[in-house]
Amino acid sequence: MKEVRIGNLNVRGYATLAPMAGVADAAFRSVCREMGAAMTTSEMVSAKALCYNKHDSKTHALMRPYENEKPFAVQLFGSEPEFLGEGAHIAYEYAHPDAIDINMGCPVPKVATNGEGSALMRDPTLAGRIVKAVREAVECPVTVKMRLGWDAEHINAVEVARAAEENGADAVTVHGRTREMFYSGKALWEEIARVKQAIRIPVIANGDVVSGESAAALFREAGADLVAVGRGALGNPFLFAEITAFMENSEFTSPTIRDKMDVLLNQTTRAVSIKGEYTALKEARTHTMYYLKGLRGAAKLKEEAAHLSALGELKRFVEKVIETGSR
C-alpha cells in the first residue's frame, strides 16, 4: 500500500476524495472511506461565517467527521488572511481534523465573484498570505486545493503552488482545469506535472479519474503523489476499491445492482441518523440519480426517485430496482 507523508500525517492509499459542496457530506464520505479512499475532506466552510458565529449548528455539521473518517480534513474558503487564520483555529479546536484545506479552486460565481475560491488564483501573493495565516493558526498539516489558473491565458498554478509551499503548505491538490473551464473539457494533466516538478511538497492530481486505468494514467502523466477523485465517485464509491486493485495488480469485481443499492441504502441511513429523515431523503434523491446511472430503465426509475421522501419508501424502491435488474 502506497504511503505519502503530508506534514506529520501519514496517508495510506492511492486516491483521496475531493471536497464537493452539496454532495460530499459525512454519510457519502464514510462509504468512500470504507471503499478505500485514502483521505476525505469536508464540504467547504466559510471562514468568515465561522468567525462571526462559531457556535452555528449548520456550520458545525459541515465540519463533523463520520466515525470512520481518518485522516480527515476540514476545507475553509475566504479571501481575507485574518479570517482564514481565525477560522482555521476555530475549526481545529472544534472538529480536531487531521488537516486544514484551503479552497482556491471553487469556480461557482457566488464564490469566485466575491474574490474567494478560484479567484485567489489571480493573486499569488494573497494566496501565500492566506496559507501563512492558516499555518500560524493550527498545529495540523495545511493543504491547498487549487486550479490551473483563472483562464487559458493565465495558467499560473506553478506560481501559486510555490507561494503556498513557501508560506507553509504541506501539500497541494491541483485540479487540471482553469476556472473558465469549470468542469468541461479534458483536464490538462501535463500542467499538473509542471507543478509537481516545481515544488517539493506532495502534489495530489485531480481531474478525469473515472476508473483504475485512468487513475494509473494520471499518476504516470503527472508524476503525482496521490490522485483525487471527485465527480467520478458520485454513485460509484466502489471506484476507490477499483483504483487500489488496479494499482496493486489485484482482482476487482465490478459491483452488482444489489451492491450499488445496498451502499445507497447504507449511505442514506447514515445521513438520516445525522440530519434527520426529511433533509436526508431530500438530498438522497440526488445521490440516487447517480447510483441509477447506466441501469436498465434508469429514466423511469429516476422519475420515481425524484419523489422519495421517507426511508421506508427508499427501501421499497431499492428492492424494486434490484428485482427489475435481475430479470
Descriptive report:
The protein is α/β, with parallel strands linked by helices and 327 residues long. It is globular and about 55 Å long. The strands form 2 sheets. Strands 3, 4, 5, 6, 7, 8, 9, 10 and 11 form a 9-stranded parallel β-sheet that branches. Strands 1-2 form a two-stranded antiparallel ribbon. It has 14 helices and 11 strands. Helix 6 runs parallel beside helix 7, helix 11 packs antiparallel against helix 12 and helix 11 packs antiparallel against helix 14.
Q: How would you sum up the major sheet?
A: 9 strands, parallel
User: Which stretches are poorly predicted, pLDDT < 50 over at least 5 residues?
Assistant: none
* Number of helical segments with 4 or more residues: 14
Q: Structural class of the secondary elements?
A: alpha/beta
Our measurement of the CA-to-CA distance between the termini, rounded to an integer number of angstroms, reads 39 Å
Basic shape: globular
Radius of gyration: 19 Å
Averaging pLDDT over every residue, what do you get?
Answer: 96
**Element order: H for helix, E for strand:** EEEHEEHHEHEHHEHEHEHEHHHHH
What is the number of beta strands? 11
Fraction in beta strands: 5-15%
Helix share bin: 40-55%
